[in-house]
Write a structure and sequence with these properties.
This protein has 111 residues and is α/β, with parallel strands linked by helices. A five-stranded mixed β-sheet has the order 1-3-2-4-5. The mean pLDDT is 93. It is built from four helices and five strands.
Amino acid sequence: MIELAGSNWDAEALAAPTPVLAGFWAEWCMPSRALAGTLEAAATRYEGRLRVGLVDADREPALAERYRVQGLPTVVLLRDGREMLRRVGLLPREDLLELLDATLGPHAPSS
């Protein structure tokens, strides 16, 4: 999982060769803290097919404003710089993975 910020956003999120799942969060927000484990599961499940990163909304208010983040946590899935999916609030891990399966196609089962 990568740390996304204004300084690396264009290279890491907009120009990425694969879709990018960005999780907007804040240290003070308890549901946001739980988001990291959910995003780690997505990063593992879609390794090579999806980049996953966190955006600290307090340290990156310009990015949060640019993507109209009004509640935390918020996850935004981007492909070729365009938003494909957005969810506000903490989703259960399986719910997020099901949404990603529906959007990206099922992951390859591990052998």
